[in-house]
Amino acid sequence: MAVPATPARAHGAMESPASRATGCDPGHGPARASAACRAAAKVSGAALAQWDELRVPNVRGRDRQMIPDGELCSAGLTRFHGLDLARADWPATRLAPAARRTFRYRVSIPHRGSFRLYVTRDGYRPTRPLTWSALEAKPFLKVTDPPRRDGAYIFTGRLPKGKTGRHMIYTVWQTSDTPDTYYSCSDVTFSAARKQTASRRPAPARTTGSAAPAGRAPDTSASPVADTSPAKPPRDTELLVAGGGAAALVLMLATGGAVAAVRRMRIRREL
């Protein structure tokens, strides 16, 4: 379907995540030296310098009827057909699914209006021309009249969940103070969020002894103290000793008496 040409006026395009239009801008585009942008330049030439001119008048929400399949990135404008090239090496912004993201839509002339952001369905292949059926039916983010700072509209939203690999974010900016609607293609790669595992400290080793930690003197405040006083013999031993002493005394007395008796007998004989 042919789209009517419009007078040359500058307005805007998605800058973060980078769109093909802003990325391939021959003056300041961060991807202008890429193979994909060089290929687009062979098709579109100097038109790529008009990164903010992908707009169509009088669409009034009839995007799917006005913008033909295979020409979504050029908004159906012949001079921008280089942006429709189906290839796998378009520079892509890395994103995390379901993460909150701040979007930046660069503008040269501000307008009031609303933004609708779509993402491609699972199974999207960048080597095939982009069609409306390749996009999810509903936008994952809608914003009206976001604030403008440093030459761009800034708004925040949550990225779609469950996406992995290469995808396209397709942005539609429908202005409310002009009849124009703007279109941007942003190549992205969704990578799974890294799982952070909590570090677990190893459990202290169990010990069977009561040794104190290295570098620290053992605590003796509650330790039993050895009794250094002379040991007292058991009562049975005392009785045994006492009994033994008495027996020895009786033996000594008996022996002494016998000796004395022998001496008296010897004296009598001598007399």
From TrEMBL:
The chain crosses the membrane at residues 239-262. Residues 1-32, 194-238 are annotated as: Disordered. It holds the Pfam family LPMO_10. Keywords: Membrane, Signal, Transmembrane, Transmembrane helix. It comes from the Bacteria. The keyword Membrane applies. Residues 11-188 form the Chitin-binding type-4 domain. The keyword Oxidoreductase does not apply. InterPro entries: Cellulose/chitin-bd_N, GlcNAc_Chitin_IntDeg, Ig_E-set. This is Chitin-binding protein. The lineage of its organism: Bacteria, Bacillati, Actinomycetota, Actinomycetes, Streptosporangiales.
